[in-house]
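[job 0412] stage=complex_fold ligand=glutamic acid status=START
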Amino acid sequence: MTKSGVRVRIAPSPTGEPHVGTAYIALFNYLFAKKHGGEFILRIEDTDATRSTPEFEQKVLDALKWCGLQWKEGPDIGGPYGPYRQSDRKDIYTPYGQELLEKGHAFRCFCTPERLTEMREAQRAAGKPPKYDGLCLTLKAEEVTTRVAAGEASVIRMKIPAEGSCDFTDGVYGDVSIPWDSVDMQVLIKADGMPTYHMANVIDDHLMKITHVARGEEWLASVPKHILLYRYFGWEQPVFMHLSLMRNADKSKLSKRKNPTSISYYSALGYIPEALMNFLGLFFVQIAEGEELLTMDELSEKFDPENLSKAGAIFDIQKLDWLNGRWIREKLSEEEFRTRVLDWAMENERLQAGLRLSQSRISKLGELPDLAGFLLKSDLGLDGAAFAKIKSTPDEILEILNTVQPELESIVEWNVENIEAKLRAVADNMGKKLKVVVAPLFVAVSGSSRSLPLFDSMAILGRSVVRQRLKLASQAVASLVGPKN
Ligand code: GLU
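[job 0412] stage=complex_fold status=DONE, emitting structure tokens
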């Protein structure tokens, strides 16, 4: 334990591409630990077994490392309070579910998914928020024992006070009061014995001696459940700090439909991690104009968690570009710059794979930039005219682009085989030849109708870059189609 005793964590769920929002929360925690001489730890919250994958977990680790947010304890390096992956901690949680049942703070619920769906539909139809109605709350102990012994599936739910409110002080929101009747009787242990997020999160924060919980504001409404669990167990609760979410310039929630949100997108485009951290860190410091360029050490010196805004951190890409440019020009030595460029080009084997595909397709090395340059470009700068040579009409191209995009999102593991299989399936479903479907994709992804093989190129570029290129292509083609679309 450090002198200050401060222990904070980032607890990502590996259910998708690592998001800049995760880097933002991780950076806050990292700076908080640094400021207080405390410890920053990484815990993987993979209680949602259907959506968590080892591939995404690896990506989270890689992305946070790329950001320079090194943790002191974590699933890859261990530590005194491990394991640090919730799916490896199942046996740790079981007795706690039992303890709550024995103390009368929780109850077994045998309601089937069908009954719960009916119940929610009825509540919705009556204009009420969906919430467990407490049917199993009144079951007699003997009946519960008999049904469990008979092997009937059940979950463990927490009891919630019938009246009053949960009052607490949040480090960002100040005094908060949430009425208990708006809090659901949360499932704590699922039928398969795995805990839900809420149960595992509280137990782990306690066992891992977390002193401050800083996370996104979307968890503010869950605090009553968490506080109640701390009380039921008789544990001291941590200090809660709920940070406002990052938003698009129009104040809408940052989402990949509007702006690229994957950390891997920014690394692939050649943003440098210090600049991204500098950009995100500016939301946590009070500085005068002209003082924006800050290293991690400077950020931690100026770090001021007392004065955070509730208004939301605007993800202003132009500001990020400006800072990134300044980092490149003002902070990197000539040698560092050269190393960065080479490291970046070789990241994820981008350059190596591009050269492998190019070797059989050129007669002079100087043809490489035209052939494979699209793999490194941050922006292809395409307009509608780029699609003019394609035989399909703009309407048809737009239909292809718009059909392909959501289909690509459903690919779990982003690789050549899965991309090819998906695009073949899309072509079949659309009743079109594969050739017709891939023609506009070629242009959208590479900027030209003659280039490296498409599926390989998409695999090399990565999901987040392809997503953005297809989105920009749709916009470019939509401008040809005119207002009727
Ligand atoms: N697993 C949660 C998430 O990914 C963590 C929330 C928390 O920090 O408590 O958002």
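The radius of gyration is 26 Å.
[job 0412] exit 0
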